[in-house]
Design a protein that fits this description.
The chain is mainly β. The protein has helices at about 10-15, 30, 80, 145-155, 160-165; strands spanning about 5, 45-55, 60-70, 85-90, 95-105, 115-125, 125-135, 170-175, 180-185, 195-205, 210-220, 230-240, 250-255. A five-stranded antiparallel sheet has the order 1-13-12-11-10. The longest helix is centred in the middle third of the chain and has 10 residues, at about 145-155. It starts with a strand and ends with a strand.
């Protein structure tokens, strides 16, 4: 894979005014780092825990939505067996206690048939929005034994080349932080523009203009690269609602290989 890192400045330049005064960088992160205690660590026997997103609920508790999958499927099992779990704490630093599982793969005939991964929880206009990543096997038939084999073998398994490009971002909505969660029937955002496949790992915020903005990871396969190599880059898009309309993607922010 090509070993370089190339920043695309276009989006950054468009978002910055020439008249802006550059302030000195006086932030020293090393002075802000504090020791980690056991209550700051969230471990679950028999599971990998990954990719947490925290929000304070109206109940005064802190709610952590995170990915987890059984360790028997190995670390690469995230692409097949991840689920979005929900944990609670009295403090944003923990200790955390598992509460429930919010989302799983819905099974065949759905775009989010397999896995539920990398959640982001947000609160907009009185509702909770749970963004997540999922995938499917397209038209290919498969068995549970085959999925288990895919998880354990990992990146070199032929199914990986189906499941990874089919990853998309979805959204589930609830009036309560504790659910139930109603999933939208289709994906939140599809590849378009510079993204040729895969739209995942969303970060969503509402701007001062009341529009909603998303940063999403996409993939652009380049002919100059060897088969299986790709360049990942992040894109930004805006919407007048918490759903991203078709064709609104995307402005380049960063590209790397």
């Amino acid at each position: 894979m090509i070993k370089h890192f190339n920043i695309l400045w276009i989006a950054l330049l468009l978002s910055c005014s020439p008249q802006q005064k550059q302030l000195p960088d006086d932030i020293h992160l090393n002075e802000l780092v504090r020791p980690v205690s056991l209550e700051n660590l969230f471990k679950t026997d028999g599971y990998y825990n990954w990719g947490g997103s925290i929000i304070k609920g109206e109940d005064g508790l802190y709610h952590l939505f995170y990915s987890r999958w059984k360790s028997e499927y190995k670390f690469t099992g995230w692409l097949v067996y991840s689920e979005v779990a929900h944990a609670l704490a009295n403090s944003p630093t923990g200790p955390w206690k598992y509460h429930s599982t919010a989302l799983k793969g819905r099974g065949k005939e759905h775009w989010d048939a397999i896995t539920a991964h990398n959640p982001k929880i947000k609160h907009f206009a009185g509702k909770y929005y749970l963004y997540y990543v999922s995938t499917n096997m397209g038209d290919k038939e498969y068995s549970e034994d085959e999925m288990r084999e895919t998880a354990v073998v990992g990146y070199s398994h032929p199914n990986w080349k189906i499941l990874r490009p089919n990853q998309r971002t979805g959204i589930a909505v609830s009036n309560s932080i504790n659910g139930p969660w109603e999933r939208f029937p289709s994906t939140l955002i599809e590849p378009s523009g510079p993204i040729t496949t895969l739209t995942v790992n969303p970060a969503v915020a509402q701007g001062a203009d009341s529009r909603y903005y998303m940063i999403v990871k996409g993939v652009d396969f380049l002919p100059s690269l060897k088969e299986g190599d790709y360049i990942d880059f992040y894109e930004a898009t805006g919407s007048t609602s918490s759903r991203i309309p078709a064709g609104s993607c995307c402005r380049p922010l960063m590209r790397f290989a």
